[in-house]
Design a protein that fits this description.
The structure is a single chain. By secondary structure, this protein is mainly α. It has a two-stranded antiparallel ribbon. Strands 3-4 form a two-stranded antiparallel sheet.
Length: 209
């Protein structure tokens, strides 16, 4: 369960409250994480700003392979940020199911309330958050940081998945966040664009209301 989408999901789990708070924001991050993971595994590539599948690769991970099938089956290539925006809820649910099937989390549906999500090893979300914070605030040259670790930190920060990566931390490390986002690959820039579009739409809605 060490794929980037799974790690982002676990990072966003609130252990004490036994729930996920971040909903739609998490969906964006997990979709970007899925694309980054597929690119790292050689299943997709950038072609002039659009996502293209490479051969008939499969990963063995049902979440990744499900996303790959959709991309491969689409009649024309789409831009990266479009795939970040699409099927966010479905992908989150697929990651949740995968983690539950593996016994990493336990999910309990509750009438008129959020699902109860219990992480079997309660230390994992905190450890992932600490890793993300250390990556964002540390002094290690970004060029030496593995793309997957850069993606965990930058995607969690861009999607605001935990209070440890609040506005002050992001602002104080804005240059490094930009570098980590670039280090994460094409999906990093796509997530930033998708989150900016989301914020603009929310602001427009608030102004119109």
């Amino acid at each position: 369960m060490d794929s980037l989408p799974a790690r982002l999901f676990l990072l966003a789990c609130e252990v004490e409250k036994e729930q996920l708070k971040w909903g739609d924001q998490l969906g964006y991050a997990i979709r970007a994480g899925t694309l980054a993971e597929l690119e790292a595994r050689g299943c997709i590539e950038d072609d002039g700003g659009k996502v293209r599948t490479v051969g008939g690769h499969r990963t063995g991970d049902p979440v990744l392979d499900g996303a790959l099938r959709v991309i491969a089956g689409y009649p024309r290539a789409r831009r990266w940020h479009t795939w970040v925006q699409r099927e966010r809820r479905q992908t989150c649910l697929a990651v949740e199911e995968r983690l539950a099937d593996a016994g990493v989390i336990r999910v309990e549906s509750r009438a008129l309330r959020r699902k109860r999500i219990t992480v079997r090893d309660r230390s994992v979300p905190g450890a992932l958050r600490a890793e993300a914070v250390a990556t964002l605030t540390g002094s290690e040259p970004v060029a030496r940081i593995e793309p997957s670790r850069a993606a965990l930190a930058s995607f969690a920060a861009l999607a605001r998945l935990c209070p440890e990566l609040g506005w002050r931390v992001r602002h104080q490390n804005r240059r490094r966040l930009k570098e980590l986002t670039a280090r994460a690959g094409v999906a990093g820039a796509a997530l930033k664009k998708a989150m900016d579009a989301r914020a603009a739409a929310n602001n427009a809605g608030a102004a119109g209301g």
